[in-house]
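Appendix C reproduces, verbatim, an entry submitted by the partner laboratory led by Prof. M.T., so that reviewers can inspect both the input and the predicted structure.
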Amino acid sequence: MLNSRLRPLPRHYNPTNTPSAPAPEFQNQDTTSEPDEEPEDIFGAFLPHIFPDDTPPFHGDPGQHLLYSSPRYGDLNIMVPSYPSSSQNRSEEIAAGQAKPDGTVNKVNEQRQLFAHFLWSAAMVVAEGVEEADTPAGETETEAQKANRDLWSVKGESVLELGAGAGLPSIVCALADASVVATTDHPSSPALQGAITFNIEHNLAKRTPGVAGKVSMHPHEWGVLDDSFSVANKGAFTRIVAADCYWMRGQHENLARTMQWFLAPGGKVWVVAGFHTGRAIVAGFFETVLEHGFVIEKIYERDLVAKSDDGSEIRREWAPVREGEGVENQKRWCVIAVLKRQGE
């Protein structure tokens, strides 16, 4: 089981002493939604009883350290980004999250809406796939295992992670011999305020200094392509990772534009998404990228809970709608897709 790779480290590993944040709560858009809801309201109502402990879509408390057990690379100490605003005055913190009289977005509120202060299961799916692709093949490797290796291999590839949060895929891609790794998140993301730096330094610089030099961290707002990082790296990445970046329907076009901008000729985009807000919003993203010059090279759903008797993944065909599925069964599946440009 994928989630068995993680365990929390003792609380004394939390140097920020950041108080726990409430779990994000999701309004599943396959059921009901209000068209004018605020972003945090979309995450409303019923996550705790949709996602029990056996298949959570996210892991850790803000500022907490998690031990990711990797058969290939050993234990990785992953610091979860701290919750935005660590004010000890709770009333001050609550006030900071309110809308301003002039209608502008409060920085604290904006940070919280990014939900970067958790480690998401989709990031673990990418990390596991990359790690297994970097593990030497056994004498009895099956065709399915070889195909999976080809899908996830990053050896010699230039990798860009979007909406990185804790940056676990970036760390594993560096260990798996990617030529260069750029880890990005929104400029206001709490991930840029210590967690990604710690994860690079602790898991790479202290263990394999040469590998750490391959990884860099950059702020990037999707769809904003005139910043210095974007200008310097147009068409620079042969692999783009975007794990659980799709709950904001209004950002789908910007995300697609960012992917097109940074993707190198012949490059691939990995899309991994759980169904926290339902299938409809994920399907909407695929419709958007098809309108922006991409084709879907490969797409399937993976069971996050069980595996076959031989240890291989349980997969099924992607379906934008599954009649009678219900939200209770959505929790155990994610969609994995590979995008490439039209005509390549």
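The CA atoms of residues 67 and 195 lie 14 Å apart. Additional entries are available on request from the coordinating office.
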